[in-house]
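Quick review question:
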């Protein structure tokens, strides 16, 4: 199915951009690998500049993810949404405006992309206290996972066998 394929590719591109974004923020210049390795020698790569990784991998992947058949907002299953792609792209643009790229033209792009998330028909908002629960109770309640305040999150279950996370 073309729609499912587009959604899966959008999710994969988002995740690649997300992980490269984390890598360059932690380590700076890292090897850039975006093609299949046919031999072990193909995996030995020099470091690529942060700017090149932003321009050739992170930004294009997030734009592709945003244009793919992702749901507009989280649908409760913990998968990537267009809102997550837009939010990460806003953060990426803001990062590109600062060190080490230091290109102030990205401030406007960051603002515009963040406004798309903010103005997304109230799809994303902070939890509010109501008669039953406080905002903090909702934040720590699995029944509220992947909803309004969660733009993108990784889920895990404590009762899953071989789960490496402590159950505290």
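Suggested answer, residue by residue:
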């Amino acid at each position: 199915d073309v729609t499912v394929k587009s959604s899966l590719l959008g999710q994969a591109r988002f995740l690649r951009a997300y992980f490269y974004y984390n890598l360059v923020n932690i380590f700076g210049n890292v090897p850039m690998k975006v093609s299949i390795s046919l031999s072990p020698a193909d995996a030995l790569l020099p470091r690529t500049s942060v700017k090149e990784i932003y321009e050739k991998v992170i930004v294009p992947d997030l734009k592709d993810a945003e244009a793919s058949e992702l749901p507009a907002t989280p649908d409760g299953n913990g998968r990537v949404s267009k809102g997550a792609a837009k939010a990460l792209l806003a953060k990426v643009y803001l990062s590109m405006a600062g060190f080490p790229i230091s290109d102030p033209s990205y401030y406007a792009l960051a603002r515009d992309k963040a406004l798309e998330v903010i103005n997304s028909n109230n799809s994303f908002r902070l939890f509010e206290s109501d008669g039953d629960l406080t905002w903090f109770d909702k934040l720590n309640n699995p029944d509220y996972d992947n909803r309004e305040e969660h733009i993108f999150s990784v889920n895990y279950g404590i009762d899953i066998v071989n789960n490496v996370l402590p159950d505290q």
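Why it works: Helices lie at 2-27, 50-67, 82-97, 106-118, 135-139. DSSP finds five helices and two strands in the chain.
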